[in-house]
């Protein structure tokens, strides 16, 4: 912060010195602005900014609080220009991926809460019961790739040692029950 103060003090001194010692008129706002911008574009000006960005106190002063972020997001989401900006940003795959990663755990928590809500459950059931959606499911079930996947899943299940044991146990139990009925 001392560096920022030093920079501001230097600018003020230069402006003051420009006006002192002569009876000339004070520089206009545009002239002052041009002079400050010219100073900032110099190597020394750039170095001062680089040093300021490395300073821990300055970085902490730049960190936005939650309320400021919240207000900014609400403002950008509700305006037409903000919505266009978000649409453009979401078309960038890298941005979309990073945003999804940061929101993943919160979305999961929200979805779990919603799944416990009877109103949400009812809405989901209503959606799943719509005739159009049921027809789409039936259409998917009749496709060759789906049937191939089912065949593959059944073959994997039948090759499983656990399934083989459960199947043989079920057959033995059924045979025992049949023998008991016959006796």
Automatic annotation (TrEMBL):
Pfam families: GerD
Span of domain Spore germination GerD central core: 62-173
Keyword Lipoprotein included in the entry's annotation: yes
Stored InterPro entries: GerD_central (IPR041262)
Keywords, sorted A to Z: Lipoprotein, Signal
Signal peptide annotation: 1-20
Protein name: Spore germination lipoprotein GerD
Keyword presence, Lipoprotein: yes
């Amino acid at each position: 912060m001392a560096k920022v103060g030093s920079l501001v003090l230097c600018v003020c001194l230069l402006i003051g010195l420009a006006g002192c010692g002569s009876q000339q008129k004070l520089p206009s706002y545009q002239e002052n602005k041009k002079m400050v911008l010219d100073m900032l574009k110099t190597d020394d000006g750039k170095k001062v900014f680089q040093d300021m960005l490395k300073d821990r106190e300055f970085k902490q002063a730049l960190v936005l609080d939650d309320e400021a972020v919240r207000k900014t997001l609400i403002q950008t989401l509700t305006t037409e220009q903000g919505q266009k900006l978000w649409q453009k940003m979401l078309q960038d795959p890298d941005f979309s991926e990073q945003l999804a990663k940061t929101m993943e755990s919160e979305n999961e928590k929200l979805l779990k809460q919603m799944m416990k809500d009877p109103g949400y459950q009812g809405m989901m059931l209503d959606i799943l019961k719509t005739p159009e959606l049921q027809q789409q499911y039936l259409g998917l079930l009749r496709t060759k790739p789906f049937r191939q996947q089912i065949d593959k899943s059944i073959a994997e299940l039948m090759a499983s040692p656990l399934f083989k044991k459960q199947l043989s146990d079920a057959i033995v139990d059924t045979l025992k029950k049949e023998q008991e009925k016959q006796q």
